[in-house]
Amino acid sequence: MIFDRRLVLMITHKDGSKYINVNMIFRQITLYVLLFFLSLVFFIIISIGVFRSEIADINARTSLIEERNETMMLGNAILNDEINQRLEEIAIASDKIDNLEGVIGVDNTPNENLLERIDVASITGAQKAFFMKFIPNGYPLETFSGITDPYGTRFHPVLRVVRQHTGTDFGARIGTGVFATADGVVDWADSGWNGGYGKLVKITHSFGFKTYYAHLNEIIVKSGTFVKKGQLIARTGNSGVSTGPHLHYEVRFLEQPINPMNFVQWDMKNFDSIFQKERSIAWQSLLTTINNLMD
């Protein structure tokens, strides 16, 4: 039956009747549905906000990662450039070491690394450079026209007798520069006759060596002067007993003349050659002494 526009259901059974107000149920259902939808909308709004926040955070992290990646790529590019530059420098250094080893006469062992080769080259080079600085070596002239008279027994062109020629004569124009062949001290610089040497310079070097430069036109250094290898000391001439402009060059050890060409042709590349060519010198003890001085 219907009362006040409401639907009332009556359920009758043996124990009695029960009335149900349908309008109240609809209202409750409606309320529940409304609450459900409101809750769903609120959840969706909250979820959307959370998703947006997470998306914004992800975008921020993505941007940061991209920036770091760009920075890393730039750093890698710079690092690669530096690596390539270092490889080029190592290649150049290796070539220079090859050249240095060739100059100082060190064998290049393919299995040795660059640092080992540099170490061997520097030690060996230092020892050899010490020799070449204090023991006469190389040519005493900047230019010359040839050897006009070698070291050894000869028929003297002026005295007309057979005698020992104690040096090597280099043909050269008057005024050609003459250079010291090793560090030393000038113990004689005289413009007199000097026993036929004419204008003469004598230089005392280390370890018992001495060099003579004779038949000069001009003497530049004075007695007692310290000179270095390669220093200009005089100019060639035709003074003394001479048949033409030339330089008479001697190398002496303990005042005894020895073949100067063995020392003139001596350099870093054929460093060991002097030990075979000039056997009158106790090279082994000299080597030991020099090595001790360098330690």
How would you sum up this structure in a few lines?
By secondary structure, this protein is of the alpha+beta class.
Query: Rg from C-alpha positions?
Result: 51 Å
Mean pLDDT value: 82
Estimated structural class:
alpha+beta
Write the element-wise H/E pattern from the N-terminal end onward: EEEHHEEEEEEEEEEEEHHH
Query: Tell me about the biggest sheet?
Result: 10 strands, antiparallel
- Which consecutive residue ranges, at least 5 long each, have pLDDT under 50? 117-123
Count of DSSP H/I helices: 5
How widely separated are the two ends?
A: 129 Å
Give the strand tally.
Answer: 15
The shape is: rod-shaped
Strand content: 25-35%
| Helical percentage | 40-55%
Structure description:
The structure is a single chain. By secondary structure, the protein is α+β, with helices and mostly antiparallel strands. Helix content is 42%, strand content 26%. The protein has helices at residues 22-104, 114-134, 261-264, 273-277, 283-294, and strands spanning 2-3, 6-13, 16-21, 146-149, 152-155, 162-165, 168-171, 177-179, 184-190, 199-204, 209-219, 226-227, 232-236, 246-253, 256-258. The strands form three sheets. Strands 4, 7, 8, 9, 10, 11, 12, 13, 14 and 15 form a ten-stranded antiparallel β-sheet that branches. A hairpin with a 2-residue loop joins strand 2 and strand 3.
